[in-house]
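Hey everyone, long-time lurker, first post.

I ran two proteins through the pipeline my lab uses and got sequence/structure pairs for each. Pasting them in order. The first:
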Amino acid sequence: RDVTLTRDTIVVKSVQYMAKTTKSGKKIAYLQLTSFGEKTRDEWDAAVSKSLADAPQAVLVDVRNNPGGFLDGAIYIGSEFIGEDQIVVLQEDAQANKTPYKVVRAGKMINLPMVVLINKGSASASEILAGAIADYSRGKLVGEQSFGKGTIQSAEDLAENTGIHITTAKWLTPKGRWIHNTGLTPDIIIAAGEEQGKDLQLEKALEILDQ
């Protein structure tokens, strides 16, 4: 038989929101971040507004298998949870000069208890977010050791539709930690897996938020 196929662009959102409920009935805003791209900021704002309409009592941010993306996206989302005038990330150049990047706006989830889910696929911008949460003891990290990418690249367009990414700096957590090649260690380490169709890491995060 003949089948007609249409070529099209598949748009996958980088932010997904789902309402979760713990065993005791506590409402949890579950926000899953798959990347930090051009549309992440708008998608994040829409997801947060939707989640707050459900009156959550805590928030769970999932950056598992998030390879990163734009630095400013990590700063913007970090600002959702960290207090005014706080440093989200430090950038260090080849001469060891450090430039602090602080919170850029008033967060809407500053006072909500939180957990961040990470794993070996969490890298770069997702580690910036998780590292800031950890340094300020703003929430717990749950899951597996993150990837450990502590460098910053700049993209340059070249002739004949080519380009290059150049490492221009390294980034540090607010307390000055460089996690390159080592990654972030979760507060609660739990291997990936499923039990009776349930995500064990996710279930552990919900259990912690239920305490």
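...and the second, right after it:
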Amino acid sequence: MSILQNKVDFVALISVARANSNGDPLNGNRPRTDLNGFGEISDVCVKRKIRNRMQDMGNPIFVQSEDRCTDGFGSLSERASASLKGIKDREEYARRACETWLDVRSFGQVFAFKDAKGFSCGVRGPVSIHQASSISPVEVESIQITKSVNGEKKGKDENRASDTMGMKHFVRFGLYQISINVQLAEKTGFTEADAETVKECLRTLFVNDASSARPDGSMEVVKLFWWKHNCKDGQYSSARVHRSVRIAQKDADGIPSCAEDYDIRLEPLPGLEPEIIDGI
């Protein structure tokens, strides 16, 4: 398979409706926001979802979540040791890791484990993901919920344990923008086919991602813009390409409640036309 030779930039627009897009554990798991009230989704969260979709599509993944582990290994160290055992040359170790796992040759990975006896290896990946930010400030709502703690049957003379109260937080609505670029593919062997896999992962980012915090239909990829440059370094800077997606509220004084409340347009970049894809 051919190595990706042309720089790629892409922007994904995602909508969040009455869902917790990315809870902050240091703030009671409330949806992440900045000091000005704009919603945020961490790059780590986005990469987790992309990895999950890669795995759903049958690709071998190194950083697997516990509930999606498919190979029986209980840690990254075990997984690395089983596949790369005995390799001490750092370049060969990196090459084999990239050949074995799609997420390693996409995002890179640091291999440094206690049982490696001082051996460590770092792989710099070609796919760079920015933190997602909402176009407008978001409204975060909280509701009180009852959580049952009756996990065990009580004895004859024991009273039923009391339910406990908790909080559930969600964004009323937000339109978020994720910006990403792909370059330096030859360092990890990232191929044209890998790039197409990443594109499909982004288009279907929230498939099999539903939970009580993110009910089915509450998060959607509205549009995916995919620019493929005609050279390795790019015809334009990534910053300029990302800025070419212009998004503004149709009613500046209103409160947006859906993606249709925004005007989305592209600033032309001569010689560079994007593929525009509807997500799900």
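Reply from user beta_strand_b:
Welcome! Quick read of the second one: The first strand starts at residue 8 and ends at 19. The chain has six helices and 14 strands.
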